[in-house]
Design goal:
Blueprint: E1 3-8, H1 14-19, H2 31-34, H3 37-51, H4 86-89, H5 93-105, H6 107-129, E2 133-144, H7 150-156, E3 159-161, E4 164-165, E5 170-183, H8 188-254, H9 260-294, H10 325-328, H11 330-351, E6 356-367, E7 380-389, H12 396-463, H13 469-504
Length: 509
């Protein structure tokens, strides 16, 4: 009956020592293989056969990085707005303050920064895989063999000293160090580390892309907030105009120049316009809170100067060349690095078809009594061994991994091309939008000017009974709508200025 109780971490158990007849030195060196030419020849033949084994040949796809020389309907421009820092691109001090706060407090950005730390740790882990692993350990245990067995009977008659039987149960103490090292002869581990580095750099570009989008989103929301402030002011002015018109209609009714129908129509129009005021107040609250959320803070008033909105102008936007997108757009650089990592993954998967060579070594002390533990050379033990392994039969898992890595590489190629195409189209759309909205804003400005004059004309004609109340009401409503549309067009114009900056890859530098 075997009874074995071991405490700690030991490379060799008490039973192993007893089976080796109390020998304290164990040696496994390469000379063992030199002494056996048959084994050596078999191993070499095994390795060569594996090296020349059939590795699946897979079809690959090369990415297309060609882009048009210039953007559609745009002349070639050597200057590029993406090179401008966001503090210089946006001149509003209140907006700059909001962006600075968001870059410090935004939760999504901070989450992305932690993803960078995770990717950096992955690089450290991969780097450590092709370095030797060294560990220290120790252990203690007891071992008793059943007496009526061949091993137990032989131990019962074995004395360490004349006249003294071996202790029973037999204690065992061991301390030592062990090292293992896989020789990276096919660059499998180095390529895995390089892939981890590429993915870390890809995470950095992902962070830059988050920064670019965050700045653009805050700027868009800020200009929307200014537009809502201006629309609210327009509504308040219209309420004053309509209230004054209602007062005149009531006087004319008393003079029997109009009926009660005209009074009710004017009063309904005033109530409708007043209801718009509260709709705008709600939109202002929601837009302010969206900005506060992006800035990583609880709801509070957003400082701004709404009076400057109508005076905002767009300078000439320098779009640069489409080829600049490869350098300036973080998402394109991220896709490029992901593609590089996927290609390294294919090399790593391919290397698994080849043999792997490992070396292990250990050194330490082992004895059945602590007072003998550090005696040299009696209690000293050490070993050195090398091994080579290679897949020979049932390599389905390795093939599947290889096929999957190649498929992900092809996916990365198409993702890179899609990202590049998306970036070009985004820039082209925003450049066209800036041009078209600019022309639309000029025309709407003239429309508002004409309708504002028509309000005064309609009121004058109404007072002299040369126009009815419906003409006055329709004129006021058209003027209100046109002023609203003018503000919305200005907001779209500013949004296009923000979006073209984002599309060009600006903001993260």
């Amino acid at each position: 009956m075997n009874k074995n109780h071991t405490v700690g971490n030991s490379g060799t158990g008490p039973g192993d020592i007893r089976r080796n007849k109390q020998k304290t030195v164990s040696k496994q060196v390469s000379a063992h293989f030199r002494a056996h030419p048959v084994i050596r020849t078999a191993l070499i033949g095994f390795a060569l056969a594996t090296l020349h084994s059939c590795v699946p040949t897979l079809e690959t796809v090369q990415e297309d990085t060609t882009v048009p020389v210039a953007y559609a309907q745009q002349r070639a421009d050597t200057l590029n707005a993406a090179k401008i820092r966001w503090k210089d691109y946006f001149s509003d001090p209140y907006l700059d303050s909001l962006i600075a706060t968001a870059l410090k407090n935004n939760q999504e950005l901070n989450i992305t920064l932690q993803e960078l730390e995770i990717a950096k740790s992955e690089v450290r882990a991969r780097k450590g895989e092709y370095l030797p692993f060294i560990g220290l350990g120790g252990g203690a245990g007891l071992d008793k063999k059943a007496r009526y067995t061949s091993l137990g009977a032989s131990e019962a008659t074995t004395d360490i000293k004349p006249g003294k039987e071996m202790p029973e149960p037999l204690p065992d103490y061991i301390i030592g160090a062990r090292a293992t090292w896989e020789l990276d002869i096919w660059n499998k581990l180095h390529n895995a580390k390089k892939a981890a580095v590429s993915r870390y750099l890809s995470s950095v570009e992902g962070k830059n892309f988050v920064v670019t989008n965050l700045i653009a989103e805050i700027a868009d929301s800020y200009y929307e907030l200014l537009a809502l402030d201006n629309q609210l002011e327009i509504v308040r002015q219209n309420i004053d105009i309509q209230t004054n018109a209602l007062r005149i209609v009531k006087l004319q009714k008393e003079a029997a120049r109009v009926t009660e129908l005209a009074v009710q129509k004017f009063e309904a129009e005033v109530l409708h316009t007043r209801s718009l005021e509260y709709d705008l107040r709600q939109k202002i609250t929601e837009t302010e809170n969206r900005i506060n959320f992006l800035a990583g803070r609880y709801p509070q008033p957003v400082k701004r100067n709404a009076e400057t909105f109508s005076r905002l102008d767009i300078d000439d936007i320098h779009s640069g060349l489409p080829a600049d997108l490869l350098e300036n757009r973080p998402d394109i650089r991220q896709a490029e690095l992901e593609l590089a990592a996927s290609r390294l993954d294919v090399k790593v998967a391919r290397a698994r078809f080849y043999p792997s060579l490992g070396i292990s070594a250990s050194i330490g002390y082992q004895a059945f009594n602590p007072k003998y533990l550090l005696r040299t050379p009696e209690s000293l033990l050490y070993s050195v061994a090398g091994d080579i392994t290679a897949p020979l039969i049932n390599r389905n898992e390795i093939k599947a991994t290889y096929y999957s890595a190649n498929a992900r590489q092809i996916q990365a190629v198409y993702n890179y091309e899609r990202t590049l195409l998306t970036a070009y189209i985004e820039v082209a759309n925003q450049l066209a939008k800036i041009d078209n909205i600019g022309r639309s804003y000029e025309l709407k400005s003239k429309e508002v000017e004409a309708l504002n004059k028509s309000i005064d004309i309609s009121n004058t004609l109404f007072k002299s009974a040369r126009a009815d109340y419906m003409e006055v009401l329709m004129t006021q409503r058209d003027a209100l709508e046109s002023r609203f549309e003018l503000v919305e067009t200005k907001m779209q114009q500013m949004s296009a200025m923000v979006d073209v900056y984002r599309a060009l890859g600006g903001g993260w530098q």
